[in-house]
Design brief:
The complex is a heterodimer of chains A (365) and B (182). By secondary structure, chain A is mostly helical. Helices cover 65% and strands 2% of the residues of chain A. Chain A has 13 helices and two strands, in the order ααααββααααααααα. In chain A, helix 2 crosses helix 11 and helix 11 crosses helix 12. Chain B is mainly alpha-helical. Chain B contains seven helices and no strands. Helices cover 74% and strands 0% of the residues of chain B. Chain B has a domain of 110 residues: NADH-ubiquinone/plastoquinone oxidoreductase chain 6, subunit NuoJ (Four Helix Bundle (Hemerythrin (Met), subunit A), Up-down Bundle), CATH 1.20.120.1200. In chain B, helix 1 packs antiparallel against helix 2. The radius of gyration of chain B is 21 Å and the shape is globular. Classes of the chains: A mainly alpha (365), B mainly alpha (182). At the A-B interface, helix 2, helix 4, helix 5, helix 6 and helix 7 of A face helix 2 and helix 3 of B.
């Protein structure tokens, strides 16, 4: 991040000379805080917008109009929903464990937000544009997502309600199971790229869409991508894998008892996870911020904006496909869910890992 | 003492207090579920201390394995146990005359290791004074990988055989009970 911080320092000094004695480390910390705030705002805005987009897409898929009242074509619906959630009474059930009940939404939201710290959104001055550049990026992402699991268990237990507890346990069993195929597909990418650093993984996919990892060892890497995508949909508890929230069986799963702002934290975490897994898939398989035809229109430093455009175009497309699947496919049964994970995804993922390993061993000396 | 060192010490004490405080909750809470959730903070704080010692891989592995795996397992065990909120059932004192000496032996071992270890080395990983930005030094992943695949290959393989045996044992236990019920 050195070059970017140096540029920021240079610009700030040129604007106000008295900032000269401020050492570089402070600029770095300031940059991290500001960028972290930007990412937080982005996730919250995405959650709001996605809730609108999801209802709109669902409406059109079912020959309805979806929200139409607030603003043109209901575009301000999410603002109205947000105001409603803020104004709603914050209910805590009498049976609930108050401390854990209050803490759970934050643990879960922190876990889903922490993933964004390792994601490079674009490239500027030959360095990643992101909160930080971790050497162990992928491992870090796997690690922090375990906070989501703890948050779900906390919420399920603290609600003091059997259905919430059952919903929480179902979701955790599902997440823990589907983490295994996700980890194996991460491992395949690490093997291909030879690094866990997200920035270096994108860097090695430079030069047009045929260089992206998804097309690198056809058709194996395409299968790895599909395995990651399916397993990640299951990990974030979306249909067709939303057993944990099965409306007809468990009311709403682990967040049944939550209302108002606390509920909105779960809600934002859910959409934040959707954005996070789409962003990870973009970085690992679809070349991150690289443009598909390897053409840059803008000159050197402003090329970063183009990178941000491509990054979000790919990420939002993957998120759109998740919404599309939700309104197309019926829900799995519990036994089918585990069968898909352990008997289909996992063996195929391992076979891919071995075959790609052999391919790499044969083609490199 | 310049500002970099002050911040360095401040971060260390924050994490150390987090670890010790939450560990006390784990040990003394009468609600076993609080103990389990306090363990989350302990494990997270220990991961923070690993980052502090520039062991980035170890920190991530710590969170991944202990928070994502073992703590979830403990929580499942607690939540699925009948009458777990009964203190006599959840927190009984088992054989204190055996546990006491055992704890003392472990404590002696830990103190011996702490005293023996060489704690010198690069201290400040974020230099706030200098004109150059020094963030976390080089990756440790490669060194760990080479050590496991080279010098320590045999222990590594032995551990993986042990894990495989544990896996088979768990599968066998889960399976045989299902058959006897039928």
């Amino acid at each position: 991040m050195q070059n970017l911080i140096l540029e920021i320092q240079k610009w700030a000094i040129s604007q106000a000379n008295f900032l000269k004695p401020v050492p570089l480390g402070f600029w770095y910390i300031l940059f991290m805080f500001i960028f972290g705030g930007v990412v937080l705002g982005m996730v919250m805005f995405f959650a709001g917008f996605a809730s609108y987009a999801e209802r709109k897409i669902a409406g059109h898929m079912q020959s309805r109009l979806g929200p139409m009242r607030v603003g043109p074509h209901g575009i301000f619906q999410f603002i109205a929903d947000g105001i409603k959630l803020v104004l709603k009474e914050d209910l805590i059930p009498a049976e609930a464990d108050r401390l854990l009940f209050k803490a759970a939404p934050y643990v879960l939201f922190a876990g889903s937000l922490a993933v964004f710290a390792a994601i490079p959104f674009s490239q500027v001055f030959g360095e990643p544009l992101g909160i930080t550049n971790l050497n162990i990026g992928l491992l870090y992402i796997m690690a922090v997502s375990s906070f989501v699991v703890i948050g779900i268990l906390m919420a399920g237990w603290a609600s003091g309600n059997k259905w919430s507890l059952l919903g929480g346990m179902r979701s955790v069993a599902q997440i823990v199971s589907y983490e295994v195929p996700v980890a194996v597909s991460f491992l395949t990418v690490i093997m291909i790229a030879g690094t866990m650093n997200m920035f270096d993984i994108v860097k090695m996919q430079e030069g047009g869409f045929w260089k992206w990892i998804i097309f690198k060892y056809p058709p194996f890497t395409l299968i790895v991508f599909l395995i990651y995508y399916i397993a990640s949909i299951a990990e974030i508890n979306r249909t067709p894998f939303d057993i944990a929230e099965a409306e007809s069986e468990l009311v709403a799963g682990f967040h049944t008892e939550y209302s108002g702002m606390r509920f909105s934290f779960f809600f934002m975490a859910e959409y934040g996870n959707m954005l996070a897994v789409s962003a990870i898939a973009t970085v690992l398989f679809l070349g991150g911020w690289q443009s598909p035809l390897h053409i840059n229109i803008l000159p050197a430093p402003w090329f970063a904006l183009e990178g941000i455009f491509w990054f979000f175009a790919k990420t939002l497309f993957l998120a759109f496909v998740m919404v599309w699947l939700r309104w197309t496919l019926p829900r799995y049964r519990v036994d089918q869910l585990m069968q898909v994970c352990w008997k289909v995804l996992l063996p195929v993922a391992f076979a891919n890992l071995i075959l790609i390993g052999i391919w790499i061993a044969l083609t490199t000396d | 003492m310049n500002i970099s060192e002050i911040i360095y010490h401040l971060i260390f004490y924050v994490f150390a207090m987090l670890v010790i405080g939450s560990a006390l909750v784990v040990a003394f809470s009468r609600n076993i579920l609080y103990s389990a959730f306090a363990l989350l903070l302990t494990l997270f704080g220990v991961a923070g201390l690993y980052v502090f010692l520039q062991a980035d891989f170890l920190a991530a592995a710590q969170v991944l394995i202990y928070v994502g795996g073992i703590l979830v397992l403990i929580l499942f065990g607690v939540m699925l146990t009948h009458q777990i909120s009964n203190v006599n059932l959840s927190n009984p004192a088992v054989k204190p005359w055996l546990a006491g000496p055992l704890v003392l032996i472990i404590l002696a071992g830990l103190i011996w290791i702490i005293v023996k270890t060489d704690w010198s080395g690069p201290k400040i990983w974020l230099d706030l004074i200098g004109s150059e930005l020094k963030i976390l030094p080089g990756p440790t992943t490669q060194q760990i990988g080479q050590a496991i695949m080279g010098k320590y290959l045999l222990p590594f393989e032995v551990v993986s055989v042990l894990l495989l045996a544990a896996l088979l044992g768990a599968a066998y236990l889960a399976r045989s009970r299902g058959k006897s019920n039928q």
